[in-house]
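notes to self, project folder thing:

trying the whole complex as one job this time. last attempt i did each chain seperately and stitching them together was a nightmare. two parts in total, labels are on each line so i dont mix them up again. if this works i'll redo the older ones the same way
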Amino acid sequence: EDQVTQSPEALRLQEGESSSLNCSYTVSGLRGLFWYRQDPGKGPEFLFTLYSAGEEKEKERLKATLTKKESFLHITAPKPEDSATYLCAVQDTGGFKTIFGAGTRLFVKA
Amino acid sequence: ETGVTQSPTHLIKTRGQQVTLRCSSQSGHNTVSWYQQALGQGPQFIFQYYREEENGRGNFPPRFSGLQFPNYSSELNVNALELDDSALYLCASSQDGGGTVNTGELFFGEGSRLTVL
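result (full assembly):
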């Protein structure tokens, strides 16, 4: 059964303190791995899609990487506005459902 | 380009009642997925609709049912509400060729917050 595990559950950083969020996944055949950002009381907002091991994507202070078993979301010099829950999700080659992890709640203090 | 809209935004029901939640998909999108998100958890897949038919279902009982209309909007119906049904219900739309031509990106609405007392 497809599974996504994210760590840590929560992460507190000072502004400018870089760090990484981890996503471990088990899937029969990976069609895509996704990162979403979710602000309190809002729906998730799409950030990245990664399709194969070795692939990297960047957007502002965020960079996502993918291996055969894990994905990392690297946050460089975060700002308070980066505070949110970051969700990792996978879609298998069956293609009809996307499985989400529980998320990492990121707090960035000024 | 209009985004995904959901209604109502908040509602309170009592155990045993029935509820209908509505979703208008993003312009140009033909697939709608519904998710349940409990507090502090990630979204859990309920089901997906493509061309007015259920295209896949997660581990939810039959009292969770849905519809998709010709304009690709959708409804989620939950019968015999239980306390554990209290959650944020998210609708997501995508441009999907029935799972064969699909970038996988989901575009979410703001959700409907259901409280069951």
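what i see at first glance: The interface with chain A takes residues 4, 33, 35, 40-45, 48, 50, 55-56, 58, 90, 92, 96, 99-100, 102-111, 113 of chain B (CB under 8 Å).
need to look closer tmrw
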